[in-house]
Specification:
Length: about 325
């Protein structure tokens, strides 16, 4: 069967397309030099960021005697995982780990929910006293009562030596609320208006429209909150003076760091020190490395799962013309 003129034209266009796209862009010498320098600089920067974690990790899985003598620098030797297994028998590290995980999950979840709801409410013009409450909330970002008044306030509220002192003060985060408010204001108003015409309430709009479309900013503040809760130890240090069972993992690490530092200072000053104390100092160094690695791993594992929500143009096509 003879081909029609249109088919011949389409075939010719397809061949031309394939021919033109087979051509590769030829790099100029200046482009090659730029790429080499670019890759070299960013490669060095990447290695600089990664090496501290790598150094910490290889020291936790290498022979402990070689680690204490400072012989582990780039390559691990005498591989073992005994340090991580032995953490289960070191003091109250297991309970401290549970406390840190619990406060991170619960505190982050409540903070994200509160930030999303309050951020949505302050975008409503009909909210009673909206400007006053919003400005009042922003003012708290610039004025702080200080450690002693805050401690007395927590004590009067009965939150000291209580797990809830980790959670309640961080539920309302003004900076995160501002981020959520700004993001919600970028969502096309037509989406909410069409839902209201169909009889949807504010909570229905928030739950079925605002919440799903706000996943990128909610993931962002979730990372901020999770890292803050996981790394925090000052609140444990201040408010848990009579409740060591509620110490966080970072607080335990702080204690071990102080013990190692005090024993090291005593040895350097020429003071007398027993063999038991010396062994404790050496063990503290290994424990310090291992706990430091344990405190870093969870955040490194969680971040990749939340990173996918950082997307550009998520609202593209949300409103059809």
């Amino acid at each position: 069967m003879a081909k029609t003129a249109q088919e011949k034209a389409d075939l010719k266009a397809e061949k031309l397309y394939k021919k033109t796209h087979k051509r590769k862009y030829k790099l100029k010498p200046s482009d090659i030099v730029f790429n080499i320098i670019n890759y070299l600089v960013f490669g060095i920067f990447t290695l600089t960021c990664i090496f501290p974690f790598y150094y910490l990790f290889i020291n936790t899985i290498s022979n402990n005697d070689m680690v204490l003598r400072g012989q582990i620098n780039f390559i691990p030797r005498g591989l073992h995982i005994g340090n991580y297994m032995s953490l289960l028998s070191v003091g109250d590290l297991s309970s401290a780990f549970i406390v840190s995980v619990s406060r991170t999950i619960l505190g982050t979840a409540l903070m994200v929910a509160a930030s999303a709801l309050v951020g949505y409410l302050v975008t409503k013009q009909e909210m009673w006293g909206r400007k006053f409450w919003y400005r009042f909330m922003v003012v708290t970002m610039y004025f702080n009562a200080g450690i002693i008044p805050v401690f007395l306030n927590m004590q009067m509220l009965g939150l000291t030596n209580s797990f809830w002192v980790y959670i309640i003060p961080g539920i309302v985060a003004p900076y995160n609320i501002i981020l959520v408010k700004t993001y919600i204001e970028s969502i096309p108003a037509e989406l909410e208006e069409s839902a209201c015409i169909d009889g949807a309430t504010y909570m229905t709009v928030f739950r079925k429209i605002i919440w799903p479309l706000s996943k990128p900013i909610l993931a962002t503040i979730a990372i901020f909150g999770a890292v803050g809760h996981w790394n925090s130890f000052t609140d444990s240090l201040l408010y848990m003076q009579s409740a060591p069972e509620l110490y966080t993992l970072q607080h335990r690490l702080y204690i071990y760091l102080n013990q190692a530092s005090n024993l090291k200072a005593l040895m350097q000053s020429g003071g007398s020190i027993s063999d038991a104390a010396l062994q404790s100092a050496l063990s503290s160094k290994i424990i310090k490395y291992t706990i430091s690695m344990v405190t870093v791993i969870p955040i490194l594992l969680v971040y990749p799962f939340l990173q996918r929500y950082f997307e550009e143009g998520i609202m593209l096509g949300a409103v059809k013309g």
